[in-house]
Amino acid sequence: MHKAAVVFAALFIISGCIQNNKNAASYNLYAEKENWLSLPDNITHSVDVFYIYPTVCASDISNICPANDMQMQNAAQRVIKLQAAAFSKYANIFAPYYTQYDIEAIEYSNYNEIEKIMQNNIQGINEIYSDIDYYFKHYNKSRPFILVSHSQGSAVMKYVLSSYMKKHTEYYKIMVAAYVIGYPVTEKFMAENPHLKFANGSGDTGVIIAFEVQSPNKAGIDALYTEGRLVINPVNWKRDETPAAKEENLGSLDQNTLKITTPGIADAVLDLDKGVVLCTTIDENKYQIPIPSVFGTGSYHGQSFQLYYVNLGENAKERIDNFMKNKKIK
Q1: CA distance 196 to 187
Q2: pTM for the whole thing?
Q3: Measuring CA to CA, how many Å separate 278 from each of 51, 211, 217, 240?
Q4: For residue 90, what are the CA distances in angstroms to 49, 84, 140, 166, 207?
Q5: DSSP string for 144-157
Q6: With contact defined as beta carbons under 8 Å apart, do 318 and 207 qualify?
Q7: What is the pLDDT of residues 43-56, one digit of tens each?
Q8: 283 Cβ partners below 8 Å, 6+ apart?
Q9: Which of 111, 217, 248, 289 has the fewest other C-beta atoms within 10 Å?
């Protein structure tokens, strides 16, 4: 399979860095519309989504794609339809282009090694800070917002939550929720960041939602495995092992046709020992991510949004309604 096709199917991980070629210290890359994957011309909702896309880089030169890489930009334009668009019925979608590693940078790695790569990517993290800072100062207009990310984007989003939001409490207090999908959010991470909260149900606000999806027959390498990984069921929004049948799934998205199947095709039950969602009702050979050097077999990493597409959007609506209700009460 061609490298670009594999990466698009993968939708995977690591952090990014955007190179600013202008010398002026005050210049911000995101002042220019061309550097945004999604920048609404008209604001039609009272809530925003700020989205960081997963790995779509397929560099033939190095393991890094700069923000203006056309292959990466084209792939990101496809991926946003599979992920952030799930929230577009209720929120304005903002999303920047950013430099990122390709999948080969983390082949045959484990979670601790990937975390070290994240920590060393200071430029990338700082550029994401610059980007979200520009969004708040120029576009947000004090609207409540939702953070949405997947895989590599979620690795970066964890820094936004742990550092940027800790520093900018004025923004954090209007965060409806953060859907940090496809990268571990652990008990250790939450203990180190007591200003953050993990979701306990379907309607709490100011919380983190995280999950990774696998087959019960998952085997081989699992680069994202780590102890203490937190998870919530994306169908019944419980944190115990209460199963949710596929008939309870509000709708799944076909990534080829962009059509929604109702009810959805995927059930969901938590494996609390592994900290993952198990799905038993789909064809493993059809839906597993085809990168055994990172995910082994039986991983549905690239389908996290598509399998529970309508559930994610409707859950965001419930959290938005609760946030607005509580805001009025206060």
Answers
A1: 11
A2: 0.92
A3: 25, 10, 9, 13
A4: 9, 11, 15, 26, 18
A5: -EEEEEETHHHHHH
A6: no
A7: 999 999 999 999 99
A8: none
A9: 217
